[in-house]
Write a structure and sequence with these properties.
Elements lengths: L9 H31 L6 E2 L2 E2 L2 H8 L2 H12 L2 H6 L4 H22 L16 H11 L10 H19 L16 H9 L1 H12 L3 H32 L4 H6 L6 H4 L1 H14 L11 H4 L9 H26 L14 H6 L1 E3 L2 E3 L9 H27 L5 H28 L11
Antiparallel strand pairs: 1-2, 3-4
Helix pairs in contact: 5-15, 5-17, 6-15, 7-9, 7-15, 9-10, 10-13, 10-18, 13-15, 13-18, 15-17
Length: 433
C-alpha cells in the first residue's frame, strides 16, 4: 500500500497551507498588532545599552544575528529554559506526544493493520493534532455526586507529578533540570505519589467502576514498587552514589546492564506494571470495568491524564537508559561545528558577518543528547511491544509476580552486586575504579 492516500494532491495541500498562512497573517495584522501597541501604552519599556527597546528596535535586532544569537545563547543556559524547554517539560512533552502517534502506527504494523492514515494524508501525521483538538472541544462532564475539588485537581496533580519525574532525568553532560545529590531517592519519592493520586481520582468520582480500578491500581503499584526499588540497590552498591549524573558517568566503559541483567529485567517489568500497560493493565481493563479509574474523566481532564501517562512513560524509559544503558555515553558521531565560521564569519557575496555566540550548543552536548534519545526511544518501543503480543494476566498472577518472583530476583541481583564488589571485579581496583 502506498504511504500517500490515493486522493492526495500536492497542489491542493500547498493551496490549503497557503490559505491558512494568509488568514493567520491577516488576523494577526488586524487584531494582534493593534492589541500589542495598545498594551505598550501601559507597559514601561526596558532600556538596553542606553537605548529604549521599542518594538521597531526589537525587530531590527531580531534581523541581526550578531545581536540575537548571543541573547538566545544566554537564555538557553538559564534555569528557566532548562525547566520549561530543554531538557525539562517541553522536551519531555514533545517526546511523549510523538510516542502517542508512534505507538498507534507501531502496533498497527505488528497486527497487520494500517493505523492512522488519512488525517494529514501522509501516514496520518496530523492525527495527533486532530485528537488534541477533539479533546479540547469536548464537554467536561462532572458526575453529580463527585467530590468536585478533588476531581478537578487530580489531573493537574497527575501531570505535575509526571513532569517532576521527567525533570530529574539527565539528558546530556550538564543538562538536567534538577540534579539533587540524592536523585535516585527523589525518583522513588516522586513515584510514590502516583498511587495516592490514582486512589484520590477514583474515589472522588463516586463511581463503582472508577473505585474498583483505583483499588486495583493501588494493589498493583504497591506490589511492584518494592521490587522496583530493590532492583536498583545493586547499582547504588557498586557506584556508591545516589546522583543520577554520577551513575551515568560511571558507565563510560561498561553499561550496568552487562553486570546486572537480572536487575535490568526486574526493573523493566516493574515499570511496565507502574505504567499499567499490557499485560499489567488490570486497573483499566476495558472488558471488565469500562476504563477503570479513568471512566468518569472526559474532555481535557482525560487529555491531561493521558499526557501525564506518556510523560511517565518517557521518564521511566529515560531512567532505564540512565541506570542501565549508559545514559548519554556513546561514540562521538556528531560532526563538529565548522571552525571557519567562528573565526572568519559567514560570507554571502561581498558581505561578511561575524556572529558571536556560535555554536549555541557544544559538540559533546549534542552527541550525548543524540545517544540518549536513540536509547530512550528504543526502550519506549520495547515497552510498547507487549501491548501488541500479550494478553492481560489475572490479578492473582500479577500479585504473585510482584510479591514473590520479582522480589526474589531483586535480592539475587543485590547478592550478585555484592559478590562483584567483594571479588574486586568492580569498584576500587576493578573494571570501574
Amino acid at each position: 500500500m502506498s504511504t500517500i492516500a490515493p486522493e492526495f494532491r500536492l497542489s491542493r495541500f500547498i493551496a490549503s497551507l497557503t490559505d491558512i498562512i494568509f488568514w493567520i497573517l491577516l488576523i494577526f495584522s488586524i487584531i494582534g498588532l493593534p492589541l500589542v501597541f495598545i498594551l505598550l501604552f501601559y507597559i514601561k519599556l526596558p532600556v538596553v545599552n542606553g537605548q529604549l527597546l521599542t518594538p521597531y528596535l526589537a525587530m531590527t535586532w531580531m534581523a541581526d544575528p550578531s545581536r540575537t544569537i548571543p541573547i538566545i545563547k544566554s537564555l538557553i543556559h538559564t534555569e528557566f529554559f532548562r525547566i520549561i524547554a530543554f531538557p525539562g517539560f517541553g522536551f519531555a512533552a514533545l517526546l511523549a506526544a510523538a510516542t502517542i502517534f508512534v505507538e498507534r502506527k507501531f502496533l498497527a504494523k505488528i497486527q497487520l493493520r494500517v493505523g492512522p492514515l488519512y488525517c494529514g494524508k501522509i501516514e496520518g501525521i496530523l492525527q495527533l493534532m486532530a485528537d488534541g483538538l477533539k479533546l479540547m472541544s469536548k464537554e467536561i462532564i462532572i458526575p453529580a455526586k463527585a467530590d468536585k475539588p478533588i476531581f478537578w485537581v487530580a489531573p493537574l496533580l497527575f501531570v505535575g507529578t509526571a513532569a517532576a519525574l521527567t525533570s530529574l532525568i539527565p539528558v546530556a553532560p550538564g543538562w538536567v533540570a534538577a540534579n539533587p545529590n540524592v536523585g535516585l531517592l527523589t525518583v522513588f519519592a516522586t513515584i510514590g505519589f502516583f498511587p495516592i493520586i490514582t486512589v484520590l481520582s477514583s474515589w472522588s468520582a463516586n463511581s463503582k467502576w472508577t473505585f474498583i480500578g483505583g483499588i486495583r491500581a493501588l494493589h498493583q503499584m504497591i506490589s511492584f514498587e518494592i521490587p522496583l526499588i530493590l532492583s536498583l540497590l545493586g547499582i547504588v552498591i557498586l557506584t556508591g552514589t545516589l546522583n543520577l549524573t554520577e551513575i551515568v558517568e560511571s558507565q563510560q566503559h561498561y553499561w550496568w546492564i552487562v553486570f546486572m541483567p537480572i536487575g535490568a529485567i526486574v526493573f523493566f517489568i516493574t515499570i511496565i506494571a507502574e505504567l499499567e500497560r499490557i499485560p499489567f493493565d488490570l486497573p483499566e481493563a476495558e472488558s471488565e470495568i469500562v476504563a477503570g479509574w479513568l471512566t468518569e474523566f472526559s474532555g481535557m481532564m482525560y487529555g491531561l491524564i493521558q499526557l501525564g501517562t506518556y510523560l511517565k512513560l518517557y521518564a521511566f524509559a529515560g531512567l532505564f537508559t540512565v541506570l542501565f544503558l549508559g545514559g548519554w555515553n556513546g561514540p562521538m558521531v556528531w560532526p563538529p561545528f565548522p571552525q571557519e565560521i567562528i573565526t572568519n564569519g559567514i560570507t554571502i557575496g561581498p558581505i561578511t558577518a561575524h556572529i558571536p555566540g556560535l555554536p549555541l550548543f557544544d559538540q559533546e552536548m549534542l552527541n550525548g543528547t543524540l545517544w540518549f534519545v536513540i536509547k530512550t526511544v528504543g526502550v519506549i518501543l520495547v515497552i510498547l511491544l507487549p501491548r501488541g503480543v500479550f494478553p492481560r494476566i489475572r490479578i492473582d498472577m500479577l500479585l504473585h509476580t510482584g510479591w514473590y518472583t520479582l522480589i526474589g530476583l531483586a535480592f539475587v541481583n543485590i547478592f550478585i552486586a555484592l559478590g562483584l564488589l567483594y571479588a574486586g571485579v568492580l569498584g576500587h581496583g576493578g573494571l570501574m575504579q
